């Protein structure tokens, strides 16, 4: 049995992927995978990247490609909700507040032509990629948590040492070495009369 490509992408997308679709029309699902090392998030995607993905989504919609003034919606993959009874390729959202819209007046052939020049067709094992990515992400999160815990422990030890120093700052003040007997210094009271 062959799995629908859209369903496979919905099932095996990464949480930080960004999903694009023409609003209220049948269209391809376009997924943006944030490049490794890029400091982009869903909230900070460069406007040109959003425009490129929106144009690509419009161009791959049979109905949307023929129309002017279409809206393309996009959201993080983690916001996609697939429930039983939904049609193939159909999704909902966990939070509507995480859905953004881009209005496209027309198809921009310059953008589509530029993107088509770099087009590559690949058929990766999406489930395997997701498993590897999640494993790597969990390992990085664990290492970051352990580093945070080490730093917090070192800071607490430093604070405890400082509290001890403050509490015991005068412990040696009255030691025998620091005390001078009245025999060696004379009668201190005589100095004040």
Annotation keywords:
single chain, 193 residues, alpha+beta, 2 domains, four-stranded antiparallel β-sheet, two-stranded antiparallel sheet, coiled coil, Jlp2/Ccd25, NFACT_RNA-bd
Q: Unreliable runs, pLDDT <50, ≥5 residues? A: none
**How far apart are the first and last residues' alpha carbons, in Å?**
109 Å
Spatial arrangement of strands, main beta sheet: 2-1-3-6
SSE string, helix = H, strand = E? HEEHEEEEHHH
Strand content: 5-15%
The rounded Rg comes to 33 Å
Q: How many separate domains make up the residues?
A: 2
Number of strands: 6
User: Major sheet, described briefly?
Assistant: 4 strands, antiparallel
Q: Helical segment tally?
A: 5
The average pLDDT value, as a whole number, equals 87
Main structural class: alpha+beta
| Basic shape | elongated
Helicity, in percent? 25-40%
Topology:
Layout: H1 5-12, E1 18-22, E2 30-32, H2 47-59, E3 70-76, E4 80-81, E5 92-93, E6 100-104, H3 109-117, H4 126-167, H5 182-185
Antiparallel strand pairs: 1-2, 1-3, 3-6, 4-5
Coiled coil: 132-161
Organism: Yarrowia lipolytica (Candida lipolytica)
Domain NFACT RNA-binding: 6-94
Q: What does this protein structure show overall?
A:
The structure is a single chain. It is built from 5 helices and 6 strands, in the order αββαββββααα. It has helices spanning 5-12, 47-59, 109-117, 126-167, 182-185; strands spanning 18-22, 30-32, 70-76, 80-81, 92-93, 100-104. The strands form 2 sheets. It has a 4-stranded antiparallel beta sheet, covered by helices on one side. The chain has a two-stranded antiparallel ribbon with strand order 4-5. The longest helix is centred in the C-terminal third of the chain and has 42 residues, at 126-167. The relative contact order is 0.11. The mean pLDDT is 87. It holds the Pfam family NFACT-R_1. Residues 6-94 form the NFACT RNA-binding domain. This is NFACT RNA-binding domain-containing protein. Residues 132-161 form a coiled coil.
């Amino acid at each position: 049995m062959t799995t629908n490509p859209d369903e496979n992408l919905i099932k095996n997308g990464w949480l930080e992927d960004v999903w694009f679709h023409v609003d209220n029309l049948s269209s391809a699902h376009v997924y943006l995978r944030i490049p490794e090392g890029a400091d982009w998030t869903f909230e900070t995607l460069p406007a040109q990247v959003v425009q490129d993905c929106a144009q690509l989504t419009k161009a791959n919609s049979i109905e949307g490609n023929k129309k002017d003034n279409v809206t393309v919606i996009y959201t993080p993959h983690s916001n996609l909700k697939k429930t039983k009874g939904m049609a193939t390729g159909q999704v909902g959202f966990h939070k509507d507040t995480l859905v953004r819209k881009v209005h496209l007046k027309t198809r921009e052939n310059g953008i589509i032509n530029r993107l088509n020049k770099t087009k590559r067709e690949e058929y990766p094992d999406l489930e395997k990629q997701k498993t590897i990515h999640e494993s790597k992400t969990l390992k990085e999160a664990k290492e970051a948590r352990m580093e945070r815990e080490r730093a917090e422990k070192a800071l607490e030890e430093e604070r405890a040492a400082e509290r001890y120093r403050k509490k015991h700052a005068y412990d040696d003040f009255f030691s025998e070495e620091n005390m001078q007997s009245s025999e060696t210094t004379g009668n201190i009271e005589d100095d004040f009369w």
